[in-house]
Amino acid sequence: MKAARFYDRGDIRIEEIPEPTVAPGEVGIKVAWCGICGTDLHEYKDGPVFCPTHDTPHPISGETAPVTLGHEFSGVIDELGEGVEDLEVGQHVVVEPYIIGDEVDTGPESKDYHLSPNMNFIGLAGRGGGLGERIAVKRRWVHPISDSVSLDEAALIEPLSVGYHAVERSGAKAGDVAVVGGAGPIGLLTAAVLKALGITVVVSELSSLRREKALETGVADYALDPREVDVVKEVQKITGGKGADVAFECTSVQVVLDTLMDALRPTGVLVVVSIWAERSNFDIHKLVMKEIDLRGTIAYVNSHPATIELVESGKIDLKPFITGKIGLEGLVDEGFDTLIHRNETAVKILVSPSGEGL
């Protein structure tokens, strides 16, 4: 089968590799669509970060480079391993793409398995990936979805789960006002979750195209250009002088973090969603004087079922966020190049490893 293989920084190759064997307790999946994530771009430009090197195997998967990329994907079950009796061949599924130690409790009540030692992701640290035509995944990480949700939209459930977990971490509730700093893919999908839960959303974003996307998709009630307006003053007007209840930092940019701190009401909650490559110059005194709750969030934990329900119920429409579809051969030139150099023009570019659906 064809697969996109990460060898090293700047070195991704489309190759023919053996199809995976479906072991007991695993599910064989024919991949329909796989999204290109910012993490994939980071590996390509600056890696290996999550990906293993050629001589250092990942502690859990045991794999070294090259590895198959892709962790935002949907597909159709084409084989069931021994002992898997609650799913059916032909069923549509998405994958919660974790690589986690067997000793970790990943049951339905767990709130921290995503923070376990050496946690990593399918499609980054081994065990196949969504940028291959087929994959075999442990039953625990396979989530069925309704046929009413198209498989291209289903490929966005993984990043949407990131937004769901961030919103859950914030404690936001219906009637609150939230400010989202940055309208890239995760900012937009976080806003989508907020709107679905009945929360007023203010987006702060430099790009006019991204502001337009936030408004036309209905995930933002207000989309502000911080070069044209004082975001803090605008939030004060919107909230009757109170300030926002919650804020989400989705850029890893210092001025955005500072703005969100100022836009929050006293005792508000600030959630940092983005990955920061450098140390922040954070105003800890302001946090103390406003009694702000500062919370980190990473990935998701038992978030997929609730996220899937939001999509299946029609409360979130993912189709407007799909801005391109390509084949595997165009991964770097049409996919990565667009998202690295012309990222304002795209939200999610989906890849069909088999070429079907293009």
From TrEMBL:
Cofactor: Zn(2+)
Organism ancestry: Bacteria, Bacillati, Actinomycetota, Actinomycetes, Micrococcales
Domain (Enoyl reductase (ER)): residue spans on this chain: 10-351
InterPro entries associated with the record: ADH-like_C, ADH-like_N, ADH_Zn_CS, ER, GroES-like_sf, NAD(P)-bd_dom_sf
Keywords: Metal-binding, Oxidoreductase, Zinc
One of the Pfam families matching this protein, by short name: ADH_N
Family: Belongs to the zinc-containing alcohol dehydrogenase family.
Protein name, as recorded: 2,3-butanediol dehydrogenase
Oxidoreductase recorded as keyword: yes
